[in-house]
From TrEMBL:
<dbReference type="GO" id="GO:0007091">
    <property type="term" value="P:metaphase/anaphase transition of mitotic cell cycle"/>
</dbReference>
<dbReference type="GO" id="GO:0005680">
    <property type="term" value="C:anaphase-promoting complex"/>
</dbReference>
<dbReference type="Pfam" id="PF26557">
    <property type="entry name" value="Cullin_AB"/>
</dbReference>
<protein>
    <recommendedName>
        <fullName>Anaphase-promoting complex subunit 2</fullName>
    </recommendedName>
</protein>
<keyword id="KW-0131">Cell cycle</keyword>
<dbReference type="InterPro" id="IPR016158">
    <property type="entry name" value="Cullin_homology"/>
</dbReference>
<dbReference type="InterPro" id="IPR059120">
    <property type="entry name" value="Cullin-like_AB"/>
</dbReference>
<dbReference type="GO" id="GO:0031625">
    <property type="term" value="F:ubiquitin protein ligase binding"/>
</dbReference>
<dbReference type="GO" id="GO:0006511">
    <property type="term" value="P:ubiquitin-dependent protein catabolic process"/>
</dbReference>
<keyword id="KW-0132">Cell division</keyword>
<dbReference type="Pfam" id="PF25773">
    <property type="entry name" value="TPR_ANAPC2"/>
</dbReference>
<dbReference type="InterPro" id="IPR036388">
    <property type="entry name" value="WH-like_DNA-bd_sf"/>
</dbReference>
<dbReference type="GO" id="GO:0070979">
    <property type="term" value="P:protein K11-linked ubiquitination"/>
</dbReference>
<keyword id="KW-0498">Mitosis</keyword>
<feature type="domain" description="Cullin family profile">
    <location>
        <begin position="321"/>
        <end position="597"/>
    </location>
</feature>
<keyword id="KW-0833">Ubl conjugation pathway</keyword>
<dbReference type="InterPro" id="IPR036390">
    <property type="entry name" value="WH_DNA-bd_sf"/>
</dbReference>
Length: 720
């Protein structure tokens, strides 16, 4: 083998034999593989073993010296074999270009490196061009273009989709050390050093500006992701704020970000809560980016306009404010303090800080002062999306009514806490109705307890089942949806008993019952099971109509203010008959019956024909089974009229005036109708106002209902 001693003549005989058998490459690869395995499995572990358990620096150096000595002694044993392997390669004529180490500068083998020669030529050429004062004229544009490309590539590599770190300082340092270091070599042979410094400084200012522009454009392209990841992206926002001040890209930032928000958010594929989340993040981000508020006001204008046209915006805002779970808006409501600023009056700048005053940016709205743009908190901005607080407060009142009516208990502590926080934002006057609503709940609990416990009223003896009521002050609560429900006579009698007791207590006040609202607690006894449920009055009325006289009546215990107790000698009903009996539309009734089908109590035996199911599938259970549950209606509709519906009802006040005007004047344009209505509203008893846009929608709806005609920009009444 190559590791044994042989004479030179014997060695060449072996080489000839290897070459004759065409084994040169095989022998070379085998030898190298054996050396690599020996190094990896024995020599390397022994080398690293020397660095275990180092006591101090001196001991560490001694171990390092020992490790290098042992490594050298081990590797040097391979030299005879490597020399013979080199002779074999020469004898066989094997080229080794692929194994040669090449120079990274000139791409030549290390023995033939021309880098020094190239650099000498490069420096000599530059010296002559500098002395002739034509280097800048000949190569300035090329050098600048090369550096620009290098800067752009470096910024992309360094800052791609990473927003949690600031990069301005590191980029500036890279420009000073790497780019300007290379540039200095170009000008280093100038005979006049002042010329060199002047040229480099001139380049530095240009390159620094290009660096800022490149970084700014990169961050602007990533701005939507920066907004979504805020506050984790605060370092990127701060970098952008600094760069925008040093570049002329504020206009580009405004246009690009506004377009991005429109493209990403303002379409039906994004639900309203996600739009609101992005809007809140944009507000926080842009306030850090531009403390003057001008950029925020300009960029988010399309978002505010879009949210104003979405019917569920206010409800989503109010829900987010008052949800129990984690919510940015709920945290904002608790965290932020009220700012006692009247945005409708002129605001004076702080005279104690006049030296820090700065003019508004050129793109600022001259109709708004700097303080008015900076004073509004996020909640006030969301509430003012509609131009006023009234719509927001109206929607909150509707949502509060939903929550109060959907709760079986009289606990209002949570709602009272939210109300107090909202009063700080919008004032007590706007939320006075909500205070009365909460007081109604408290008063209802007190009145129910008084009527039940006072022997003068004797409700317990007069009523077969307990009845309680939520007594609402009609003029302070939002309008209810108009629904009908015919209750059994025994329930009406209970209502009358409760009403008479209430009139005795309150004197000149009486009750107007809403039979379709409330909760009914019922116990349903069947052949093999007993079920306890809390359901709506409509659900309870449906199942009540399926009981019989011959069997034990279904006992029902009513715990809220709508009650259902009656019997019908009937085990099956059609949708049409039951709809007529209950005065409930057939479509609504079918949806309500679906709940009892899901509970296994009703079954549809033929088209629109339902029967009571007293036995569970598979026969009667051995033991009586009791199930406690509550009914979650498949319809999550609010019992209250929506803010939109309430507004439509308010606008109906104008209809008689509009009919009178068109009867007398034949036809009128929109603006003229609006002016006349404003005059009537200011002089008459009407307290409702509407803008031109609302009036246009109202009149267009009347046109669709064929109550008005529209042609040539004029509205007129149809001929009868």
């Amino acid at each position: 083998g190559f590791g044994t001693e042989t004479t030179e003549e014997e060695g060449y005989e072996v080489f000839d034999l290897i070459k004759q058998e065409d084994l040169c490459t095989f022998i070379e690869e085998l030898s190298i593989n054996l050396i690599e395995n020996e190094t990896r499995e024995k020599i390397a572990p022994e080398f690293w073993k020397n660095f275990n358990n180092r006591d101090n620096e001196v001991d560490g150096f001694n171990k390092f010296k020992t490790a290098v000595r042992d490594l050298y002694n081990s590797v040097i044993l391979f030299l005879p074999a490597l020399r013979k392997l080199e002779r074999l390669r020469d004898h066989c004529g094997v080229r080794k270009d692929e194994d040669e180490v090449q120079c990274g500068g000139c791409s030549q083998e290390l023995e033939q490196c021309h880098c020094d020669e190239i650099m000498a030529t490069f420096n000599e050429t530059n010296r002559k061009l500098i002395e002739l004062d034509i280097l800048e004229k000949l190569a300035g544009d090329v050098i600048t273009a090369l550096i620009h490309v290098r800067i752009e590539n470096h910024v992309q590599e360094m800052c791609n989709a990473s927003f949690s770190c600031s990069y301005i300082s590191s980029l500036e340092n890279w420009l000073d050390t790497v780019v300007l270091g290379w540039l200095s070599r170009v000008y280093m042979y100038s005979p006049v050093q002042d010329i060199t410094h002047k040229a480099i400084n001139k380049f530095k200012q240009k390159l620094l500006h290009h660096l800022y522009e490149t970084y700014t454009c990169t961050r602007i392209d990533q701005m939507f992701n920066i907004i979504i990841e805020y506050p984790d992206s605060q370092p990127a926002v701060e970098d952008l704020r600094v760069c925008v001040q040093k570049t002329d890209l504020r206009g580009y930032l405004t246009r690009k970000l506004e377009q991005t928000l429109v493209t990403k958010l303002l379409h039906q594929g994004v639900n309203t809560p996600d739009v609101l989340t992005a809007y809140v993040a944009a507000v926080k981000t842009l306030r850090q980016l531009d403390p003057t508020g001008v950029l925020l006001d300009t960029v988010t204008q399309p978002v505010r306009k879009y949210l104003r046209n979405r019917h569920d915006t206010v409800r989503c805002v109010v829900t987010a404010l008052t949800d129990e779970g984690p919510s940015e808006l709920a945290d904002e409501l608790v965290r932020c303090q009220v700012q006692n600023v009247d945005e409708n009056s002129p605001l004076e700048d702080d005279i104690d800080n006049w030296e820090a005053w700065e003019p508004d940016p050129m793109d600022a709205d001259p109709s708004k002062t700097a303080k008015s743009r900076q004073s509004s908190d996020i909640i006030s901005m969301l509430a003012n999306v509609y131009g006023s607080k009234e719509t927001f407060v109206t929607e909150y009142r509707t949502l509060l009514a939903d929550r109060l009516l959907s709760s079986i208990s009289y606990n209002t502590e949570k709602e009272l806490r939210y109300l107090e926080l909202l009063k700080l934002r919008f004032g007590e006057g706007h939320l006075h109705y909500c205070e009365v609503m909460l007081k109604d709940i408290y008063d209802s609990k007190r009145i129910n307890g008084h009527l039940t416990s006072d022997l003068n009223f004797d409700l317990i003896r007069k009523q077969e089942f307990p009845t309680t009521a939520l007594i609402l002050s009609a003029q302070f609560w939002p309008a209810f949806k108009e629904e009908t429900l015919e209750l059994p006579q025994i329930v009406k009698d209970h209502f009358q008993i409760y009403t008479e007791a209430f009139e005795m207590l309150k004197g000149n006040r009486t009750l107007n019952w809403k039979p379709h609202l409330g909760f009914v607690t019922i116990d349903i006894e069947l052949k093999d099971r007993k079920i306890s449920l809390s359901v709506s009055p409509t659900h309870a009325t449906i199942i009540w109509h399926f009981q019989t006289w011959s069997k034990k009546a279904l006992p029902m215990r009513i715990v809220v203010y709508v009650l259902l107790v009656t019997c019908q000698e009937r085990l099956e009903w059609t949708i049409e008959d039951l709809s007529h009996q209950m005065q409930v539309p057939a479509t609504v009734l079918r949806r309500k019956i679906a709940f009892w089908q899901s509970q296994g109590l009703l079954r549809e035996v033929s088209m629109d024909m339902f029967v009571l199911v007293e036995d569970t599938p598979g026969g009667r259970c051995k033991d009586s089974m009791t199930v406690d549950m509550s009914c979650e209606d498949e319809e999550s509709d609010s019992p209250m009229a929506s803010a939109h519906d309430q507004r439509e009802e308010e606008l109906q006040v104008f209809w008689s005036y509009i009919v009178g005007m068109l009867t007398n004047l034949d036809s009128m344009p929109l603006d003229r109708i609006h002016q006349m209505l404003k005059m009537f509203a200011s002089q008459g008893p009407m307290s409702v106002e509407c803008n031109v846009q609302e009036l246009r929608h109202f009149l267009d709806r009347k046109v669709r209902e064929h109550k008005l005609l529209f042609s040539g920009g004029l509205y007129r009444l149809p001929k009868t």
